[in-house]
Design brief:
The complex is a heterodimer.
Chain A: E1 5-14, E2 17-27, E3 32-36, H1 43-50, E4 58-63, H2 72-78, E5 79-82, H3 94-104, H4 109-122, H5 138-149, E6 156-160, H6 168-183, E7 187-192, H7 195-201, E8 204-209, E9 212-217, H8 219-226, E10 230-235, H9 242-249, E11 254-260, E12 263-268, H10 273-283, E13 290-294, H11 298-313
Parallel strand pairs in A: 3-7, 3-8, 5-6, 6-7
Antiparallel strand pairs in A: 1-2, 1-4, 8-9, 10-12, 10-13, 11-12
Helix pairs in contact in A: 3-4, 3-5, 4-5, 8-11
Chain B: H1 18-33, H2 36-63, H3 67-73, H4 83-86, H5 90-102, H6 109-129, H7 132-136, H8 142-180, H9 188-215, H10 219-245, H11 249-273, H12 276-282
Helix pairs in contact in B: 1-8, 2-5, 2-6, 2-8, 5-8, 6-8, 6-9, 6-10, 8-9, 9-10, 9-11
Classes of the chains: A alpha/beta, B mainly alpha.
Chain lengths: ~350, ~280
Amino acid sequence: MTAAIETEGLTRGFKSGLAVDGLTMRLEPGQVLALLGPNGAGKTTTVRLLDGVLLPHAGRSLVLGHDPATEGDAVRRRTGVLTENAGLDDRLTSRENLLYVARLRGFDKAAAARRVDELLERFGMIDRADDLTGGFSTGQRKRVALARALLHDPELLFLDEPTSGLDPAGTRDVIALIDELAAEGRTVVLATHFLGEAGRLADRMAVLHRGRLRAFGAPDELAAQMWTSVGAEIDLGGVADATTAAALALVPGVRSAEAHGDGVRLVLDDREVLPRVVAVAVSRGLPVFGAATRRPTLEDVYFAIERRIAEEEGELGTDGFVDRTDDPGHTPMPRPDAGAEGWVS
Amino acid sequence: MTTTSPSSTRGARARADWNAIATIVGRDMRAVRRSKAIVLPMVFVPTVLLVLMPIGIGIIARNAPTSQVQSALGSSLLSGLAGPILDLPERERLVVLILGYLLSPLLLVIPLMVSAVLAADAFAGEKERRTLEVVLHLPISDRDLFVAKVLTAFLPAVALTWVGSLIYGLVCNLIAWPVTGRLFLPFTQFAVMVLWIAPAVALLALGLLVIVSSRAKTTQEANQLGGAVILPLIFVAAAQTSALMLLPTPGVLAVGALIWVVALVLVWVNGRRFTRDRLAASG
């Protein structure tokens, strides 16, 4: 089967240095790829290279069977792009913004008008069709821009920071929409640094750091390669004392246990250890309100990769961690095991 | 897979997609019409140059003594060129000289200015409004995009110049009527300047400015860079065209042809150098 995206050694530099450096990856049709990395990692440049807007300085790529560097129009006819900024002309109405793109995508006047109205309806913007987009909120602009990206029913969607600037309700709506698009079988490349949305949608993740691909694969596979241990929490309904944590740490298969919040946080050899830990807790007369293993999220995987990059590049903080999680209740996964596979060096 | 060189991107020269070009031109013109920052200078400057100045200066010239025109134009340097003026009745000479020969070349400021304003908006304006990225992701060839952007500035520049010329001719004939009692505009050289030289001047400005606009990040930057290119042209145009109007018609046509050749070469060269890769990389 022809890959939706296949790159080999894709490289692009600017005066300031290499923005994408030797990118090699393959994405199958219908997959959702989360292209992750901090600002300046090369996500937008990668999208531009894959859509034939920028030319590679080395390497090459095939997108839907076409080389974007030599067949850019053929690629762009089959791809839809949501740029980070909605890119609407404020001097035009939402209908005019969409009609313009529809006509450039080959619709005749009548078909363009029908399709534009259909999409404005779908995105709940039909009532604002004849309003200048200059007065729109960020969420409304995103919705019109998403409608524009879908005008020609593209097989492959590049979504660059689709939820940036959106309020929680807007974010939820956009994520639901992307989920819907993926369910329709479209290939989606989601360039973002919002890990929550990526985690909910992606079945592949690529982590870019300073233009280099540092990890690529399914989040679960990457997690399995990074951690041989399993995180777990037991809810004891109150702060556990050090003695309790120490007792639970003695259970065979428990690598570590520490009091945390309303219970104990554990690192286990595998999930089969958890019932034994619960049994010990109950035998000690402790009230067990809940116990659950915690599967690593895409966010965990991402930060573990970032941590490893930082370790490699000597950028670690004084505590040895680069923890960028803003959520104070976030439960960190165990540190990844050394020498995990799935690592692109 | 093998390495791709940027030079391979052009590939075979496909036919121009005139539907796509017309769509971009139509959209850009609609957007420009709604932009006060662009429309105001395009209305204000021509109004001053083509209406207010000829009215004020024309009324003064109409009522001024004309006895010294003969001696001024009768010098050995100008006598050969000034025949058309000296052949007129004495009372018409000053007003025709000023409105028909000295002031009318200011018409050429219009295509220069309009081209400059619209060319700055063509790419730098799109970058500033963050709409360019969307255009670059559309299936339109680099060449068609360049042609569309050139036409977006060229067509209004020429149209405005021609409409302005009609208004200028009307105003001048009305002002001069008490003295001339006839329509003295357009005469042949004036018509050649409007119909032949003005479009060439507009294209010349565009040949220089579209590339400036594509490299600049903001309209302001494009205007500043463009000003450095356009202002000298304006001075040259203002200084030289008065004499141009006194040349015989074949001479005026030849000068126009020369400007067309330079303009077309500039546009062609810049069109060859224009790629979305450069445009995206400069943003």
